[in-house]
Amino acid sequence: MTDITTSAPVQDHGSAEPQLRSRAARFFEAWPPMTIAALAWIGAMLVIALGADLLAPYSFTAFDLKARLQPPLGFGGPLNHALGTDELGRDVLSRLIVSIRLSLLIAFFGTLIAATLGTSLGILAAHFRGRTEAVILMLIDFQASMPFMIIALAVLAFFGNSLTLFVILMGFHSWERYARIARGLTLSANEQGYAAAVRQLGAGSWRIYGRHVLPNIASTLIVSMTLTFPEIILLESGLSFLGLGVQPPLTSLGNMVGYGREYITRAPWILLAPSVVIVLTTLSISIVGDWLRDRLDPTLR
Asked: Is residue 119 part of a domain?
């Protein structure tokens, strides 16, 4: 009688470690640590902007002259003012939270206006050609040749300052970039087979550009938006720093920096808090923009 013994298959535990390493390498190649950190910071800014009214411990306009210029927590300041107070006793943390919301809203709508205006003009120039294209290209060259800061200062000085006018003015920043990109990509798309095939099937211009051309050039335009967004944040900060941006009682990041410059030696926390937010936010959006360019551009894969 013969005993037949079956042995369980031996598992090679040594091969699991290289697989885990290769998976981790692929993950960090697709999601670099700097990109993850940048996305986390942008997400935190969006949460703060959406929940500013709930997160702010005090009203951003409430002041207490008895508590003016108190240092932040950890530098001898009280527990109820984590980032200290300003020259009027207003809570810096509350003003910073509200400033983040307003600055992001200005940058978002400004970027949206610039992208919509520039893309529309670029597609119109590529479609009509002739005199229409010449006029649009002339406007693009004029916008590119004039320093936008000078135009902004002149418009705000002549028409006065209001939040609506300021947002619209920010929307005219960098629209020529979108117009150039949209015109070039639309001309290229019109020469390709899919646009010509749809046109031969009897589709109208709105359908061709809205359903076929625009989705194919959207990736490049989205990357351009990630470049315009931090530029508008910096432009808004610069104009508010000069006193021509957001006006009291509203507050923005540039507005806080502008008021804090007078107390930079006695109370540097007034200026440092919004300055750090501006730097980290613009840096994070730029990092995400570079990452999106690498992910969306097929030639870089």
From this structure: yes
Span 31-73, pLDDT tens digits = 788 999 999 999 999 999 999 889 988 888 888 888 888 888 8
Q: Which residue has the tokens 């550009």?
A: 209
Q: What angle do CA 105, 59, 278 make, to 5 degrees?
A: 40
Task: Look at residue 12 and tell me if it is in a domain.
Answer: no
pTM score above 0.90: no
Question: pLDDT tens for residues 86-125?
Answer: 888 888 999 999 999 999 999 999 999 999 999 999 988 8
CA pair distance 183, 178, nearest whole angstrom: 8
Geometric angle at alpha carbon 259, from 254 and 263, rounded to 5°: 130
Residue 151, in any domain of the structure: yes
Residue 85, strand partner residues: 91
List, in sequence order, the alpha helices (H) in the chain. Answer: 16-30, 33-50, 52-55, 92-128, 130-145, 148-159, 163-171, 175-190, 193-200, 205-207, 214-241, 253-260, 269-296
Calpha distance 214→197 (Å, rounded): 16
* Residue 215, both tokens: 């989705």
Tally of domains within the chain: 1
Domain range enclosing 171: 34-300
Residues 301 and 231: beta-carbon distance below 8 Å: no
Segment 213-271, tens digit of pLDDT: 777 788 888 888 888 888 888 888 888 877 777 887 888 888 888 888 888 888 888 88
Residue from 69, 91, 65, 66 nearest 80 by CA: 91
